[in-house]
Amino acid sequence: MASEASREQVRTFLTAFKRAAIEAGPRITIVSRDKNWNALPELGLTERQRDDAILALTPDDYSMGPEPDDDPTREGDVWVFGAEVLGQHAYIKLKLVEDGPLRKAICVSFHKAERPMRFPFRE
Question: How high is the pLDDT of residue 1?
């Protein structure tokens, strides 16, 4: 069963994620996976539009988390969001990683949603 956070916990995560991204340049590190790169032409997005969609997320876009990253080589928890992007639904999995004194904003997944998503703060 996926874990569920409070609206305030989601707001706190998104604020910290966006702050880390902006302080980095702005820069969101995208995990290099074919699925993530193939999503840009499938959704008709540029890299900038993808990053803008991530930075525009609100607690209403929250789906689930935090939960442990399913990749054993990566530490930390992931948070799952969904967003309408150019008329299509995108699945977005984010995390914050401590990197010395800095935090890195990482997008683990950004692709078309493969199944219906639940949004607890919209229900």
Answer: 44
